[in-house]
Amino acid sequence: MTELRVLVVDDLPFMRQAIREALSDSRFRIVAEAENGEQAIARYREIEPDVVLLDIVMPVLDGLTTLRRLRRIDPGSNIIMCSALGEQAMIVRAIQLGARDFIVKPFRPERVVSALERVALS
C-alpha cells in the first residue's frame, strides 16, 4: 500500500503528539502540522496533503471556517474533523460542509487509523 501524507491541525501540542503516536505504525505519514486554521490553509497550499485531520475549536480561525475554505481551494480535499464537542449539530454541519468523517476526542488510536483508511479507500 502506498504511504499517504497527512496534515494535522490542532491548537493543542499534546493532541498533535497523540495523533503522531496513533499513526506511527501505519501507512500514514504526517508531513505537516498547524496550530490554527490560517496555518492549516498555508500548509495545505504548500504541500497538498492526501488527508487533513482538522480540529473544530481553535484560535484565529476555527475548524468549520477552515473546512469551508479548504473545500473552496480544493473541492476534492479529504478532511476528517476532530473535536471534543460530540454535539450532533456540529457533526452534521461538518459533514454538510464536506468533511469525510468525524472523530470525537478523546479518541482511541485505532479510530484515527480506521477513519483515515476509510477516507483513503473511497
What does this structure look like?
This protein is an alpha/beta fold and 122 residues long. It has one domain: Rossmann fold. It is 45% helix and 22% strand. A five-stranded parallel sheet has the order 2-1-3-4-5, with helices on both faces. Helix 2 (37-47) runs parallel beside helix 3 (63-73). The longest helix has 13 residues, at 109-121. The radius of gyration is 13 Å and the shape is globular.
Please sum up the structure shown.
The chain has 122 residues and is α/β, with parallel strands linked by helices. The protein has helices at 13-23, 37-47, 63-73, 88-96, 109-121; strands at 4-9, 28-34, 51-55, 79-83, 101-104. A five-stranded parallel sheet has the order 2-1-3-4-5, with helices on both faces.
SS field, number of helical segments: 5
Oligomer: single chain
By DSSP, the count of extended strands is 5
Structural class: alpha/beta
- Name given to the CATH homologous superfamily: Response regulator
Kindly report the average pLDDT value: 92
- The CATH architecture designation is 3-Layer(aba) Sandwich
Amount of beta strand: 15-25%
Overall radius of gyration: 13 Å
Considering the chains and any ligands shown, give keywords for the structure.
122 residues; Rossmann fold; 5 helices; globular
